[in-house]
Amino acid sequence: MNKVEKLNSNVNGFVQRMIGWTREHDRSFQQTLSSLCEGTLPEKTAKTLRSILYAYSYETVWIASQYLCEIETNYGPIPDTIESVSLAKTPKGYEVNVTCKGGPTMSDSYEKYSPAIYVTTHDKQEERIFGDEFWVDLTMIENEDDLLEECLDLHSDEEDPWIFINDHCGIPEVLLAPSGWPDKRIWDWMRLPRDQRDFAVQYWRGIDPDAPVDHVLEHFAKSGGDLSLVKTSRSS
């Protein structure tokens, strides 16, 4: 089993266990996460939930949790509306298949939530060699060094590849260099909850494009996620 197959298996395994857990406890997934973070779950309930979370890698929990939250936002709480969920890795993200209770199977693409870059070389561009295999999903990359290594591995058929980025998806322009290479802040940004990711992008666009992630999060906490309050405090 290769890395993608193993991740697929783990993500789907976690999704199924969480769907079962939410039904057993009659709680939405988003409500469950909030209660766990706030420390308001009964200790016994929290213990059973943690036993599931600790059984999987951070990467698996992070990816699956993002999609479960999106599914509940789109279709409603899992215990009330969702019959089953499955995810399949695509070159640029995941395809999510959702079956609602009493309804048909619906297939949606959530690729925009998986930051990815298309990595090619001068020679392949000249020879018009294209392929989905040249998309690099950044959620499966640990850091900038790993990204460079992955890019070189992709084009190991060339002796001295002239690598460049030809396309991207799911990456805000403020986190891309003119060459298309992702900013080093992207690995911290990707792991933030969606509201913090959205706030960070707006902060970089409207206030300080070079601010480190931890600096942005300080303003998020102080303002409650309201960017207008940050702008007001800076101008006063």
Beta fraction of the residues?
A: 15-25%
Q: Give the tally of structural domains.
A: 3
What is the makeup of the main sheet?
3 strands, antiparallel
Uncertain parts: none
Q: How many separate helices?
A: 11
Radius of gyration from the alpha-carbon trace, in angstroms? 20 Å
* Average pLDDT, all residues: 85
Which structural class fits the helix and strand makeup? Answer: alpha+beta
Give the overall silhouette: globular
Q: Report the count of strand segments.
A: 6
Strand and helix map with partners:
Blueprint: H1 3-25, H2 29-38, H3 43-53, H4 58-75, H5 78-81, E1 82-90, E2 93-100, E3 105-109, E4 116-121, H6 122-126, E5 135-137, H7 144-154, E6 163-169, H8 186-190, H9 194-206, H10 213-223, H11 227-235
Antiparallel strand pairs: 1-2, 2-3, 4-5, 4-6
Helix pairs in contact: 1-3, 1-4, 9-10, 10-11
Characterise this structure.
It is a single chain. The protein has 236 residues and is α+β, with helices and mostly antiparallel strands. It folds into 3 domains: 3-85, no CATH class; 115-187, no CATH class; 192-236. 51% of the residues lie in helices and 16% in strands. It contains 11 helices and 6 strands. It has helices at residues 3-25, 29-38, 43-53, 58-75, 78-81, 122-126, 144-154, 186-190, 194-206, 213-223, 227-235, and strands at residues 82-90, 93-100, 105-109, 116-121, 135-137, 163-169. Helix 1 runs antiparallel to helix 3 and helix 10 (213-223) packs across helix 11. It is globular, with a radius of gyration of 20 Å. The N and C termini lie far apart (58 Å).
